[in-house]
Amino acid sequence: MKSSSKKYLPLLCLSALTIIIVACSTKKNTAQTRWWHSFNAKYNTYFNGAQAYIDGSLEKENTNKDNFTEFIPLYTVGNKNSREIGKANFDRAVEKAQKAIAQHSIKHRPEWNKNRRKTEKDIEWLSRKEYNPFLWKAWMLMGRSQFHKGAFEEAATTFSYMSRLYKGQPAIYGKARAWLAKSYIEAGWLYDADDVIRNMKRDSLDWRAVKEWDYTYADYYIHTGELEKALPYLRKVIKHEMRRKQKAREWYLMGQLQAALGNREEAYKAFKRVIRSNPPYELEFNARIAASEVMAKGQAKQTIARLKRMAASDNNKEYLDQVYYAIGNIYLSEKDTMNAIYAYENGNKKATRNGVEKGVLLLHLGDLYWQKERFGDAHRCYNEALGLLDKDRKDYEQLSDRSKILDELVLYTDAVQLQDSLQYLAKCPEEERLAAIDRVIDALKKREKEERDKQAEQQSRNLQAENSGIGANNIGDRRLEPKSNQKQNSTWYFYNPMAIQQGKATFRQLWGKRENVDDWQRINKTVVGGQVGTSDLENLTDAQRDSIEQEMAKSDSSANTTDSVKNDPHKREYYLAQIPFTEEQLQNSNKILSDGLHHSGVIFKDRLDNLILAEKTLRRVSDHFPNYEQMDDVYYHLYLLYMRKNQPQTANGFIARLQRQYPKSEWTAILTDPYFKQNALFGEQIEDSLYAATYEAFKNNRFSEVEGNRKVSDSRFPKGANRDKFLFIGGLSKLNSGNVEGCINDMQTVVEKYPQSRLSEMAGMMINGVKAGKRIRSEKFNLDDVWNSRTNILNDSDSIKQVKFTADRDIDFKFLLVYNPDSLNENKLLFEMARFNFTNFLVRNFEIEIEDMDGLHRMQLSGFRNFDEAYLYARQLFNSKNVVSQINKDTRGIIISEKNLQLIGTALSFKDYDEFYEQNFAPLKITKRYLLSEPAELATPKAKENNVQKQAELDTNTEQDFYENEPNEEKTENGLIIPIEIEQEKKDTTQQKGFIIPLEKSVTANDSSSVSSENNFPIEEGEKAPDSTKTIIPTNEGKKPAEKADKAKLYIDPKRNNPPNSPSPSNDKKNVTPQNKPKKQPDDAPLIYFNDDTESKTEKKKTDDKAQPVLDFDVEDEYYDLDGF
């Protein structure tokens, strides 16, 4: 027996090995192969991916940081700052899922006994597109990993394909559609999510997909703001939830929804459930705060006392801003605004972190100050809140707008408040005045002490954190969990929106509002009369230099006296020096006060639309400061204000005041203009149309029309939006009549009154040029002036006589197009030039550069190794209709060497070069050979030779080998004439296009055939074979791009030297395995293609007439191991 068993042992091993090998193939679809690939996918690649997914989910769960000042998201990935958490693990899970799908996908239909009748279940089975019963979990793993790492578009793509792949399996299909809707919701594509949800409501939902749809409906209704509809689904979600921390978050969200709907008792119960679930401390703390707020009605004192006890706890030192924010909210619910402000201010002072919680507190505090019209305090709060809040908040735009307005307003309101206080102190008795000053000094000292204590405490925290190795944020936590701050701060500064906002806020505090322009430190870049710099001191007299040095010494001395009594804010003398006791000091104070009232009143009226406060402010100026220098402007705004208040009688009274007191004011002219009402309603449109007509007249040299329209602008639109443009064009048109002084005056007006206009810089340059001694000419632009210009004047000096052009043709050349930029579309010309180079010169790289040259633009093309290449390029360029259509008759083309180009504009001019070109380059014969089809970097350097020797060699060639200027060609006024080739007859469209390049090595006669092995492309029937001494480089013109070969079907003969994609020569008769044509992918083919639908050539097996039972290993109803995550 033993001998017989040993005899069959090798046979049994071989059979087992054969079975395993056969089972490994995905091209067979049997019960054994399905079981084998399901088993292998589950316990190999999928297992590793699932573990990575679980690790990533736990990492995200433990380090997620919610913003409890608004609705927390149902999924932690909804927090933008938490999306990067666990990304490495999720990427690994995606990789493993893709590998499992690629290796174990079975798409080949199983063999079927034709004698067996198909049931409904059999038809569904045979119509499937995936036969591995386990692989749906790999697809689900990949999509969920993409979802939880924040790649919602990728997740949507995965679930969309998955729903098509498993459309016949309701349970899997329902889960895939649910996750597809979730991906759309989190990506913000609510319309697409609504479409998926609406379509699923029409279909029957499999009971195994109900859980996923409960999550989907809850998330959808929360995002759409339909909180009533979200509540029942959120209750189901809480029942489904398996994770303790996530369930606590969902209870907190339930409390937030109930509180928003006004269900205080239900909200309180929900928050209590959070506390009883033993969550992380931060979540428990916020639940206690929220529970106190919802139950504060009727028992505000007890709730506030409870919150104050929480503030006294050491465990809550980090959360004092939230505690005092809750206290302030309770005071507000009791309509106690002053105590609410006091609580908010305490929270701001005692806050130890600069997070979103503090930002929300400052936002609400700023809103209270805004309502109280305490704009200085509101500005302080809004500016700090801007750097702490996310731009995606709904109220962020309003916050930003208010901050911008207050940046402008507070300068005036603070000045008014200060001068009112100083004038009040000047009228007070001595004792009361000194007592007020002492209170200010005490408050200053107290504030400085608090800042020192806060700074010392922060240093102590930092030192303790460094010594213990534990971050300060974990001090007092009863559960030392992984810190979210470390994960969040790992991103680069410029990718952290919170850090960006904080940096912007700090910048605004230091520098104020600055426009995003170059050299922003300079106040005015077009200053006509600049300040005296160090270089200008040399041009001054000794007395002037001594005076300047004395003033600078005085300012330095004043700056060094900051420790004196009058400059110390801790001394009474510092404040007494600012109080206006004398008449002169009082006048200066009134001037500041009236100016602040005037400008703040205009902002109240125009920017804040607060007509009551604007009336109060402006009437104070008109009633109390009758000698104010800008009183006409005050009357004008008061007229507009009362017209808006529908009080025309009062408004007309201010027109009468203007006519009586300021008859020559521009506001008097505007208000008494018979077209005033029409201008007020349609003035903007009328002025735009007038400027468009004026500009068109200016371009067409109709200067009288320009002058007439300018007068209309002066009378009807002196404050129009296009006023600077009218002044600028009107000034330029005055040059036509020789009025240079009038032109300069208009430019000066543009610089002074419109410094922010883009025309201001140009006007300032013109003024500075005139002051530097340059002349403004009124003549029309003439190209010949530039063509003949040179910097150095030719004379008899030896240095000028030695400057000459070089006639060397074998040095680097350039091709130039010189044109007036206003005469053509420069961007379109640049595009056509680049396209011409790319499509015609595959192996050359010509660089294009545009330079400004005394009002002209010079487009330079470099990369030509000699004159012949530049000449051939110019001929082909001017033969291109697309390029020629973009230039006009005044555009001039030039072929010039780099050495000669350096002389243009200095000692020699373009006109001089034209004459030199006619004598030295025009008579040359140019070869037609392969100059521009050679790569410049691979070209063999040629020996230096003179033009006479080279021309003699060219003379030995035939006429077909070179170009030559015809004797009857004449030079036109437009510039250089470049001969253009006569268009050749069109060749057959089937002919292969390419460049002909001679070969050094000859080819034997045996190699000539219908298919060239050297050139690697077929020769069509009816064509002549190319010369065997030349290689043809095919171009892509007229051919479709080749399709990529299927890697799974690519056959390579190891004995063959030719590339696999090249046709074999006729004398090569090796047998090649025929290749099947690749199948066309169906419309619902997978977006991730793994080459798993290729068929291998197998022998057909005979099937038994007996019906084979179909072994169904479908595990779609099996418990899904990732449901808890």
Automatic annotation (TrEMBL):
<dbReference type="Pfam" id="PF13181">
    <property type="entry name" value="TPR_8"/>
</dbReference>
<feature type="repeat" description="TPR">
    <location>
        <begin position="248"/>
        <end position="281"/>
    </location>
</feature>
<keyword id="KW-0732">Signal</keyword>
<keyword id="KW-0802">TPR repeat</keyword>
<feature type="compositionally biased region" description="Acidic residues">
    <location>
        <begin position="956"/>
        <end position="967"/>
    </location>
</feature>
<dbReference type="InterPro" id="IPR011990">
    <property type="entry name" value="TPR-like_helical_dom_sf"/>
</dbReference>
<feature type="region of interest" description="Disordered">
    <location>
        <begin position="549"/>
        <end position="569"/>
    </location>
</feature>
<feature type="region of interest" description="Disordered">
    <location>
        <begin position="1003"/>
        <end position="1109"/>
    </location>
</feature>
<feature type="region of interest" description="Disordered">
    <location>
        <begin position="942"/>
        <end position="972"/>
    </location>
</feature>
<feature type="compositionally biased region" description="Polar residues">
    <location>
        <begin position="457"/>
        <end position="471"/>
    </location>
</feature>
<feature type="signal peptide">
    <location>
        <begin position="1"/>
        <end position="23"/>
    </location>
</feature>
<feature type="region of interest" description="Disordered">
    <location>
        <begin position="448"/>
        <end position="483"/>
    </location>
</feature>
<feature type="compositionally biased region" description="Polar residues">
    <location>
        <begin position="555"/>
        <end position="564"/>
    </location>
</feature>
<feature type="compositionally biased region" description="Basic and acidic residues">
    <location>
        <begin position="1094"/>
        <end position="1107"/>
    </location>
</feature>
<protein>
    <submittedName>
        <fullName>Tetratricopeptide repeat protein</fullName>
    </submittedName>
</protein>
<dbReference type="InterPro" id="IPR019734">
    <property type="entry name" value="TPR_rpt"/>
</dbReference>
<feature type="compositionally biased region" description="Basic and acidic residues">
    <location>
        <begin position="1037"/>
        <end position="1056"/>
    </location>
</feature>
